[in-house]
Amino acid sequence: MVSPTGGLPATALLFLEDLAANNNRDWFQANKKRYERELRDPWKAFITSVLERLAAVHPDFHDLEAKDCIFRIHRDTRFSTDKTPYKLNVAAGISSGGKKSSEPGVYLQASPAGWVVGGGAYWLEKHELQAIREAIAAAPDEWEKRVNDGEFTRVFGQIQGDRNKRLPPEFKAAAAHTPDLALKQFYYMGERPLSELTSDRALDGVMESVAAAEPVRTFLRNALHTD
């Protein structure tokens, strides 16, 4: 299992590699104990350690437990042509509102293909999207300053999200100068070295990415908490 200061054991990624070659229920059931020992429990322990680090510096991450943040490994295949039953990664959405809330938080995803730390506001209701757009339109220079900050762009590149082809009338003129107003989500993802995930630098690496994102995350969070 993961140490309090370290990352995932290499066996966690090896399990995912084996799952990729045997993505079926029979194999998974036969290897369920291995899954729990080598992947599920170490990932839960790692997220618990991340939460402890976050709670020490971010009040909105207090009182969260790993079980509130970790996504299931089972895939929802109801509307997909890909019927393989299991995801080939582990992921967690760390947010005071829960892993699928609109509350801006931290997103972690790990697989043999890569290790990603990101965050932002993704699951936005219509009124929440309106609130963020109003905040950006009211302070476009501040928004641009934060998303174009050198550390943010070094770690994450640019802000991401699907875009509306048509905007509410009140944002059309402003969007010519602030194109991000057309976004329907406001999120960012940054890859970190996969070797870091299985080293004693894993938690420090997470916190480095979190620090780079914090000015953008707090802008989004403040926009949703204007009352």
Sequence-ordered SSE layout with sheet pairings:
Blueprint: H1 10-21, H2 25-30, H3 32-57, E1 90-94, E2 105-111, E3 114-121, H4 126-138, H5 140-147, H6 150-156, H7 169-175, E4 186-192, H8 194-197, H9 202-223
Antiparallel strand pairs: 1-2, 2-3, 3-4
Helix pairs in contact: 1-3, 4-5, 6-9
3D structure, described in words:
The chain is an alpha+beta fold and 227 residues long. It has a single domain, classed as 2-Layer Sandwich (BirA Bifunctional Protein, domain 2), CATH 3.30.930. The protein is 46% helix and 12% strand. The protein is built from nine helices and four strands, in the order αααβββααααβαα. The chain has helices at residues 10-21, 25-30, 32-57, 126-138, 140-147, 150-156, 169-175, 194-197, 202-223, and strands at 90-94, 105-111, 114-121, 186-192. Strands 1-2-3-4 form a four-stranded antiparallel sheet. A hairpin with a 2-residue loop joins strand 2 (105-111) and strand 3. Helix 1 crosses helix 3 (32-57), helix 4 (126-138) packs across helix 5 and helix 6 crosses helix 9. The longest helix is centred in the N-terminal third of the chain and has 26 residues, at 32-57. The chain is globular. The protein starts with 9 loop residues before the first helix and ends with a helix. 33% of the residues are buried.
